[in-house]
Amino acid sequence: MNIYFYGGIFDPPHNGHYEIVSKCLKLSDKFILFPTFKSPKKGTAHADIKHRLNMLEILFNNLDVFIDDYESNAYKTHYSINT
Q1: What is the reported pTM?
Q2: What DSSP letter does each residue of 26-71 carry, written as one string?
């Protein structure tokens, strides 16, 4: 089984994110997005995490993508290695 993970701050989610996910979905059996509360490199997000999660739901509503809130519920800077 091919499981793809895609993490990021997604502030805001945009067409570039959509294109990446669309292309990777063709290669994966399962695709999981991990939006983070705070990026280690970018600092604090402009949009609140709840708004970013809602925007991701809207952007990917027609694709078979699971949006995991593990990193976003940490309410701190999160590193992918910890996930």
Answers
A1: 0.88
A2: TT-SEEEEEE-SBBTTTBS-SS-HHHHHHHHHHHTTTS--EE--TT
